[in-house]
Amino acid sequence: MENSAEIGAAVLGLVAAGGGGPAAVLADLVGSVERVVGLTAGAALLSDGAVGGVVASGAAEPRAALAAGFGQGPGGESARSGRPVLCPDLGRERSRWLVFAAKALAAGVDAAWAFPLSHGPDTVGALLVLGRAGAEPDPQVLGLFAEAAAVAILHSAASDRTATELRQLRTALTSRVVVEQAKGMLAVHGGVDVGTAFELLRGHARRNGRPLGEVATALICGDTDPAIIIEHR
């Protein structure tokens, strides 16, 4: 088995790579496989049943077969099924994956191991490792790398959603404050209550096909004369 300290460092690096987004995680994943296991590797993301965005590391010739391996090949099967797909003898799988097997064998690769990027019920992609028959890498190590990458990608997505929700909340709160200020201005200018002021403001926005917040901002900034709005009461 590979050095446990090196494996641990690689796993921690994968988790930390989540801050750079999915592409950074995939790059760190395949780089870790090449560095720790010594094999050519590719990783890709799963989206709506399609696998794409392949990132690769390792020898040039085997890398040429990786894209096919994520189409009709073990990488694609692993991503869509959420299960490992182990192929210690690609020669026996010619009829199963015609294009991938032909490209891999032509590149001097006759074995492949694919692992889903999964954590809990969520599968976000797959890791595909290419090598030689009889020199199988430790599947536990590859599975550990794949799961660490999945954790990083899922955490990154959750962080992005949280940031988006916070931006939307700030925008909504800001818009509400602006509308309240505009209502107050109209109420004072027209000598009406704030409820009537709001109806006048909203009516003006609808007649002109503009968002309420935009009309309120224009009123506060002096770009819209309150008399124009008041005259429709």
UniProtKB/TrEMBL annotation:
PROSITE patterns: ANTAR. It comes from the Bacteria. This is GAF and ANTAR domain-containing protein. Residues 159-220 form the ANTAR domain. Keywords: Kinase, Transcription, Transcription regulation, Transferase. SUPFAM superfamilies: CheY-like, GAF domain-like.
